[in-house]
Automatic annotation (TrEMBL):
MF (Gene Ontology): metal ion binding; oxidoreductase activity, acting on single donors with incorporation of molecular oxygen, incorporation of two atoms of oxygen
Pfam families per the UniProt record, alphabetical: Lipoxygenase (PF00305)
Domain annotation Lipoxygenase: ranges: 60-263
Keyword vocabulary terms for this entry: Dioxygenase, Metal-binding, Oxidoreductase
InterPro entries on file: LipOase (IPR000907), LipOase_C (IPR013819), LipOase_C_sf (IPR036226)
PROSITE patterns: LIPOXYGENASE_3
Protein name as it appears in the record: Linoleate 9S-lipoxygenase-4
Any one biological process term the GO annotation gives: lipid oxidation
Record bears the keyword Oxidoreductase: yes
Amino acid sequence: MIDRTETMAMGQVQPINKRKNEVDKKVEANLKAIEEIKASTDMALRNTEMVDSAKVPVEDEELQKDPELQAWWKELVEVGHGDLKDKPWWQKMQTWEELVEASATLIWIASTLHAAVNFGQYPYRGLILNRPIICRRFMPEKGSPEYDVLAKNPEKEFLKTITGKKETLIDLTVIEILSRHASDEFNLGQRDGGDYWTSDAGPLEAFKRFGKNLEEIEKKLIEKNNDETLRNRYGPAKMPYTLLYPSSEEGLTFRGIPNSISI
């Protein structure tokens, strides 16, 4: 027969076990999120695989004797960056590896980097309260009449402080236009002319591999964004990070990586 003391003890154990289970679940979810972040880092490292898929080997000697390529690099360094042309870190463009690194960097800046910082402007900033572009007055000093007004009606005073209606409309118009995809855009992994942009079989096959890799990456990103256990991707706001999905249609889509910057 269980006495009253044992009954009370058992009653205390149950809530403790319940809380422990809840904590364990949270810890497990956090660990999974950490692993997911690490996996995302690994994904960034796998960009090397993306570059490998698009490689078409070129002999160093052939590269060094290519007048068009060498003239392009000379103009890029000495004219495009004339103020930095004497810096020691410039590549000499004498090897295939240097060409791959330079090309991959330029493509990344004009495509992926631009997509990440540009096409989320309206979705993230469309509600001007999230990110006002201007503060029209200082915060009132404590004890001043303005501070008393702020304390009585903070929302009204806040709206007087941030961007005005006219400026807000101008700002929203600009960022909405910038966040839209044009109807004649080509996304990363696409070319004008389909499979007939070159008669060279090597680059054609490499470009196809590159495009297929992008499609696979997009599928993986969609799967992870739909996984409710990945708290770093599927948060309470249910607004997954889609800016680096490679594909997109025309318009305001909050996704898509165009081949280049076009404004």
